[in-house]
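Complex 260.
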Amino acid sequence: MNARILQLTDLHLTADPDATLKGIRTRASLASVLQAIREGVSDQELEFEYVILTGDLAHDEQLATYKALRALLGDWVSRCRLIPGNHDDRMLIREVFPELVSAGTGRITFSIESAGWRLIGLDSHVDGETYGRIGDDQLQWLAGELGAHISQPTILFIHHPPVIVHSAWLDRIGLLDAADLLDVVRSYSHIRGICSGHVHQEFSATLDGVQILTTPSTGVQFLPRQDELICDQRPPGFRIIRLNDHRFESNVVRLAESVE
Ligand SMILES: [Fe+2]
Ligand SMILES: [Fe+2]
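Predicted structure with fe (ii) ion bound:
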């Protein structure tokens, strides 16, 4: 059986519905992305099993912002899985999406099965910091999940990509313990991909047969391969992941225009 998964990332929503970030109304931009997906779903082109939200859901770490996100997702909430980015607040995510995340104060992760595949979400948020870190405890948990589901081809989701994207300012705020994560990844042969956000651009690399992908933001875009932050005028987007029997296919879809 095949399945389709959508990845949405770097929503950067605010409590003020009309606030702009780098000239983009991020809430209206997400609404346009969701609308485009809903139209695709009604044509059965975009029917999906899960939506994976890979962090920087809120830009302002406000309760009202997460509630606005929940309202925008509407009846899709139960099909969503989410992990935090550097801008997020775990406590508020837990408060607004209690059925999607484990209770307690620890990391927000997930490990689910879809069409014979394993999808694992990792939490790289570090309080007060822009860079990310997974930490030894979570790496141990990951190794346990990978070992317990060795027959399932697997995709990892993590906000901070574990590779450089050749933009000096972004590579300075990357994943601190990327090497440790990649050590774990290399010790299992059933990991097919790692999907990230954080860099607000499409990027791909292949490392030891593992596809490493980043996905455009649903709002603000960053121009690739720059030493400093320069916004990209390209419209917002999301990623479609198609899970086939032994491999996955993936592509980015962008809206026709930005929402300013
Ligand atoms: Fe972001
Ligand atoms: Fe980020």
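The pocket of fe (ii) ion (ligand 2) is lined by residues 56, 85-87, 159, 198 (CB under 6 Å).
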